[in-house]
Each structure stands twice: as C-alpha cells, then as structure tokens.
Amino acid sequence: MRFDRQSGVFLHVTSLPSRHGIGDLGDGAVRFLEFLDRADQSLWQVCPLGPTTAAAGHSPYQTLSGFAGDPLLIDLDDLGERGYLTDDELVPPDGVTAGETDYETVRPFKHDRLRTAFERFQASPTEGDRAAFEQFREREAAWLEAYTTFVALRDRHDGAAWTDWPAPVRDHESEAVADVREELADEIAFRAFCQWVFDQQWRRLHEAATDRGIDLVGDLPIYVAFDSADVWAAPEAFLLDESGSPAAVAGVPPNPGDDGQRWGNPLYDWDRLADRGYDWWLGRLRRLFELVDVTRIDHFKGFDEFWAIPADADSPAAGEWREGPGGDFFETVEAELGELPFLAEDLGFLDPSTVALRERFGFPGMRVPQYADWCSEGDRSQPMHYPEDSVGYTSTHDTDTFAGYYADLPERQRDCLHYNLGADGHEIEWDVIEAVWNADSAVAITTVQDLLGLGSEARFNTPGTAEGNWRWRVTDDQLDGTVADRLARITDATLR
Pick the catalytic residue: 34, 77, 279, 298? Predict the structure, then answer.
C-alpha cells in the first residue's frame, strides 16, 4: 500500500476524556475527532483494542483475545440512551479523577453496569436490537463462540489460567465444550452482548472518523498471550508440548548493555500454519481490517526470524533465532484480503533480510528521534535522515514523552540536539514536531503528551515494569483549540 504524505496523533482510547474514569467510545472520542479535524490531521493511532486484565497489568499487548474488544471501552451513556441504564446508574464512581484511569475502581463499576444493561436487554429488547444482536453472533461466530466460552469458563474458575481447568474443557474436547456452552448459556450471552455493543460503538466511531477524512490506525502485536481464548481454542496454531504448555517462548536476545527480554508468549507453529494457508492469521487480520484502516505491525522482525527461548529457561540468552514465514505469509494474506495497509515496527535488530522483507512489500518502517545519537553525523534516528518509506514519530507509547526524554539528556547530547534542530530548548516538543513533520517520511505521528509539552509524569508505559502503566488520560480542557491550530499550521506548511 502506498502512503501519501500525511500525519496524525497517537492517543489510546483509554486516554480519552470521559466521566466514567476511563476513556471510551462515546462523546470524548467524538471530541477528539473534532480536535484532529481542526488540527488538519488524517490519522488517529491507538493501541490494540483487546480485553485487558489486572493480572497482566491492564496491558493492551497481553489480552484475552486477538479478536475481541475490551468491554472497558464501552460508552455507558449510550446504553443509558437506549434505556438499558438509569441516570442513577450512570453517576460516576467515587474517587475517579479526570487525568488518570483507576482500573481498580473502573473495572468492577463498568462490569456491574454492563451486566445490568444486559439483563434489561434480555427482559425487553427492541425488535431491532434483538435482530441486530443475533445477526452479530452469527456473523462473528468464528471467533466469538470461542472467546465468550473462554471468558465464561475463566469466570467460573475464578480467573484461573485455562491450563488449570478440568481436563475435558482444558483440552477443548468438543463434547465437554458443548456441555459448557449449554450450562453457561446466559453468561456466554452476556459476554457476546458486550462484544456486540463494542462492535456497534466502534463502527459508529469509525464512520464518524471517515466522514472527517481521518483513518484509524490499529496495532497488531505479533504474539498473543498464552492465557487467551486464542491459544485455548486453536492450540494447533502454536508450538506447544504434549501437556499444552509452550515448548518455547518469545523474546529478544541480549544487546550490548542489556540482558535481552523474555516475553513468555507462545510461538507460532509456522510450518503447520503454512500448510493450512495461515487460516488462523487470516481470520485475525480479516477482523482487524474491518475495524481499522491502517495497522502497525508490532515486532515486524518476527515474521522474518524470531527469537525462541526454551520454556524452562529463565535467561533470554538461552534462545536461538528461527526462520519466520517471510514473504510467503504476506503473499498469502494479500491474495486473500487484498492490499496490505501495514506500517512496520522495525526498531532494533535490523538486518538485511528483515529490511528486504519490509521493502519487498512496501511497508514503511519506524523512526524515533529518542533513539538518536545527536552528536553522530548521519544518525538514522535524526529526523533530517528519515527516508520516504518511513513513519516518523516524536515519541511512542513505549518511550518517555519528548520533554521527559529531553530533561534527562546529557549536556553534550542536548547541545548537539539544539544544533541539529536549530533549537534553543524553549518548547523543545514543538521543535521536534516540526523536525519530524519536515522529514521526508511518508507519515508523521506525534502524541498528545508531546503536543502539550508534558514531562515524564505523563508517560504511558515503561517496558519491563508492571505497575503504573496505561493510566494517563488527557482532559477536555487540555485538548485546546490553540494547540490544534498550531499543529494545523505546521501541517499545512510541511505536508500539504
């Protein structure tokens, strides 16, 4: 897919303004579209949309499903307008603040309201809603049945991992699963109701974005969580041992100055998937392409080659590189689904084969100025050296804000940054936005935090840490028209 020169803003849905303690798909999302429109932006990038858990630190990169939406993102006010919640039930919970998500309060609050809405829907649905719900269940059955059964069973077993369930359902034996679906029919219907509402609200938001000329940019983590409906329902897609546990797990090898990372996700059985025409992946991508216009592939290198760590090894250094599916995978997907709207996260471990795979299919790679050596002439992470087939970011969901990064820069690096950007350190965030927007990159993206010049206190995620992530939120008054107008002026001067 060829990307014309365009730009946008990253802000995950949870970070939107909302009166119920977490960003959702309601009015706050519409107001953000209005902000983007005023700022003359054509892209809105978000994190993965799957159901998060407290056990995984609320991370959108370790979800219960690669297909489902997170019920926490559902707009409750919409359910009130439909008559499924009362005004009293829509009063925000005590203790929530405008600028942060308190998951410990929000999760039970929204779950209770969603269950109440479902019970009222069951008791007296409109004819249109009943028909739409049944059509949704039939249309999305390929993934929805497995997901709703999985979460119903997970709830029955007090959140225990599926490997700890009784053998027949743990092993996904058809007769046992059929019995469970009958026993837990009401709970399964509730989970399907949540997915139906999410789907309706997301598609409505997508349509509103399209009407404003804004494309939605989704995120595709290459790996899924082991404790997920994906692995439980389709173990044949993964490298598992006889007990159903991962035979090897994902991660990255040590780099100079670090010990590598052991992510722990199960790896794919790419040979078997290839024999099946990548059927599981085609289903996953078909669903994602229905929801978003463009997709960022996280850890693109894993499609070229991947680091496999023995499941019983604690050290990432014990792993080995194995060959990924390469071009055969993308050729198959393109033949089945059409044009591939991918951006490739290719940071780290760059080698000729990975670069060649990305270039073969025309996927723009990522460049981030926070990885630059500002005193090294020609450094690839300096914006003035970004090529056309790239996406330039000012920062990402995994980095510090640019102001936070700048505050911690050694003095010599800071002086070199000033020289390279023609800056004096005053409003450094706008200097780097202008530099990225002026780069040759096909796509330029910044974050709301960088637009506002916020420091490390507004960082969204710190990789390798389990606490305090995914909580930052913007407030309505911060989405100021003057900020939008300033970004519009830069955009009009550089990209239009």
Answer: 298
CA 315 to chain centre: 27
The residues, any chain, with a CB within 8 Å of residue 331's CB and separated by 6 or more, are none
Domain of residue 154 covers 6-494
CB atoms within 10 A of CB 213: 12
Residue-by-residue pLDDT tens, the chain, 496 positions: 678 899 999 999 999 999 999 999 999 999 999 999 999 999 999 999 999 999 999 999 999 999 999 999 999 999 999 999 999 999 999 989 999 999 999 999 999 999 999 999 999 888 899 999 999 999 999 999 999 999 999 999 999 999 999 999 999 999 999 999 999 999 999 999 999 999 999 999 999 999 999 999 999 999 999 999 999 999 999 999 988 999 999 999 998 878 899 999 999 999 999 999 999 999 999 999 999 999 999 999 999 999 999 999 999 999 999 999 999 999 999 999 999 999 999 997 678 999 999 999 999 999 999 999 999 999 999 999 999 999 999 999 999 999 999 999 999 999 999 999 999 999 999 999 999 999 999 999 999 999 999 999 999 999 988 889 999 999 999 999 999 999 999 999 997 6
Query: Within a 10 A sphere around the Cβ of 333, how many other Cβ atoms?
Result: 19
187 C-beta neighbours (distance < 10 Å), count: 18
Taking the whole predicted model, whether its pTM rises above 0.70 is answered as: yes
Separation in Å, CA 287 to CA 32, 71, 218, 227, 283: 24, 17, 12, 21, 6
Residue 164 known to be catalytic: no
Q: Which of 321, 213, 324 is nearest to 269 (CA)?
A: 324
User: The CATH number of the domain where 67 resides is what?
Assistant: 3.20.20.80
Region for residue 57 given its phi and psi (left: phi exceeds 0; alpha: psi -120 to 50; beta: otherwise): left
Distances (CA, A) of 170 to 55, 118, 163, 232: 20, 28, 6, 7
**Does some domain include residue 1?**
no
Helix, strand, or coil (residue 444): strand
Q: Which alpha helices (H) appear in 439-495, and where do they start and end? A: 448-451, 481-494
- Tell me if 284 is assigned to some domain: yes
Does the annotation mark 398 as catalytic? yes
Nearest to 193 by CA among 69, 286, 62, 289: 69
- In the residue annotation, 271 being an active-site residue is answered as no
Identified catalytic residue from 27, 145, 379, 398: 398
Question: One of 78, 227, 304, 345 is an active-site residue; which one?
Answer: 345
- Alpha-carbon distance 370 to 382, whole Å? 9
Residue 375 lies in a domain: yes
Q: Quote the number of domains for the chain.
A: 1
Q: Write the CA distances from 199 to 50, 136, 194, 292, 482, integer angstroms.
A: 12, 9, 9, 12, 33
Bridge partners (DSSP) listed for residue 294? 217
Do 375 and 413 form a contact (C-beta atoms < 8 A)? yes
In a domain, 223, yes or no: yes
